[in-house]
Design goal:
By secondary structure, the protein is of the alpha+beta class. It contains 12 helices and 9 strands. A hairpin with a 6-residue loop joins strand 2 and strand 3. The longest helix has about 90 residues.
Amino acid sequence: MDWPRENHNISETDLRNVFKYEPKKTRVLTLQGLYEEPSVNLFETHDRWIEWIDKELPKPDSGASGLVLVLARRTGQQQAPAIRDDLLTLEKEPPKSERAQTFPIQVGGAPNAEKGLQSALSGRRSARTLPFSLEIFRLISQRLCLHGSIARVINRTDVPIFSRAEVQMGLPEGPTYPAYIYNCRSTNAWEMDLALTVTHFPHTGLTYAMLFGCSITIEDEIIRRLCSVGEAASYPLLLPGIFAEIERNRHMNIIEDYVDDIEQKIFELDYLPSIEKQIDNAETERRNRDKRSQWLDTAYLRNGLITWNEQLVKMAKHTEELQNTLFMPTKDKYLHDQASIASYAQLHPEPLYRPELYDEKVDYDERDEMRKSEMRKIGTKVSDRLTAIIEEYEDKIRECTMRIDGMAMATQWSHGETNVEIALATGRDSKHMRTISIVSMVFLPGTFMASIFSMQFFNWVPSNDDTVISRYFWIYILATVIATTLTLGTWYYCVVWRHRSRKAVSEEE
């Protein structure tokens, strides 16, 4: 089975085939201690990365708790300012030669450019393109204990994912420790897709993480949120929860745009031109194509929301799992373990079960219990917020469904009105054709007889030696028969025989 392996970093094959590299300036946030202010550094050069990894990066065996987050910036983005006091980014200002150009921050979520399918540049500017070199990313993935499963998650570009696993992770050539691995991925059907990998060590509360595909706006938003988390920095699902918030903001903007567009298409169905104008109007086919495209895009958006909502449900369930395992009170855990041991003893005879090995006193640590209690409170907040987001997604899914059904019903009504107009026009034409047919039947016998009697084959005042009907009258009859036969034969060949032949060939194929 292809499940997450123990102490498995990103393989060399994935480093070269899955990811692309365009070295740029990168921000790294470090948060150590409960009441320490976060430190945000701006790295670009190879030597600065090596210095930070060797001297400043906390190790899993150091006993330090906190958070280390690498914000892998999306290529094509402008450079972030060196210092932003209003966002409390606290970056260390680089030398003047390396200072980045300032720019106004965008407020209010993702830009409208996210709307629509991926652009042609999405392959180059996607989450898999990293702002550092292959060598630096190889070193980062080893020292930040990034699990190799993130490569497969990055590859699944059109499927939103939340996955979690419990494995043993550690530094190369060093001891391994129990760790929680989280991978998150948003679909790239719309712009600004993201991916997140988190490695959390429960024994110290240390978290390593990397966010792929960041824009400047997202970087600022994440730093703003992490500046006031406090003890929540040690909670395993903190970053996946922030990821869910960011994805929610992106989806809400996309939903509003698509809902507005499909409502406009529904209103357009109420103002269709007449049948004659629709036939003569060259824009009719284009409008119909736009309506079909809008309907399909909205249906695709709804399916994407349903899939991502299922991932949020998995995330919310994991918070309950953490409450009942990792952050369970020591006394409750002891009672739970003793109940499990007792059940085991009933199923296994002596001497497999030895009470003296298991019936120990509870090892109660007051500080650890306070920490678990605080984590349970944070977990409850995270669970409540995820539940609220899930309910909001369900409401938006129903809203998209209503718009899709509304457009289908409006289309049916429009087609019904069009069919009524066609039926009325056909009825009017039938009345006209019946009038023409009656007039034709009235005048046709007289016209036919006048034509016959006006021919030179008849001599109405013959002399003694003349005949009344010419001996060449048979020529008229023969020409009439031949012309009628050719006319009927041509009609039968073009309308009946060729149609039957094509139908027979298609049935054989």
